[in-house]
Design a protein that fits this description.
The protein is mainly alpha-helical. It has a domain at about 35-90. The chain has three helices and two strands. Strands 1-2 form a two-stranded antiparallel ribbon. The longest helix is centred in the last third of the chain and has 24 residues, at about 65-90.
């Protein structure tokens, strides 16, 4: 089963209105269909700022600044989401 890296849309079926008022797929007009399944998994990852700061400290031997903490949080949640998408393909 071939699935793209993002897992596809989490909430597919977005529509837009065509020039004559007819419903057409939003993607037809270049409008994104919303968040991907990967985005959904990353959003709901059980990883918080404190955990991200702890991981940063273990990797770097110092406390992170606020931007570094957010970057670490994004990295960890992205890794979590990638594994969740990969698990669905097995």
């Amino acid at each position: 089963m071939a699935i793209d890296k993002t897992g596809g849309p989490a909430f597919p079926g977005a529509i837009a209105v065509g020039p004559h008022g007819e419903p057409v797929p939003a993607a037809f007009h270049g409008v994104a269909e919303g968040m991907t399944l990967r985005d959904y998994f990353a959003t709901h990852a059980p990883i918080d700022l404190a955990w991200a700061n702890d991981i940063f400290y273990k990797r770097n031997g110092r406390n992170a600044g606020w931007r570094e903490t957010l970057e670490m949080l994004a990295e960890l949640r992205g890794a979590y989401a990638d594994l969740m998408v990969k698990e669905r393909t097995q």
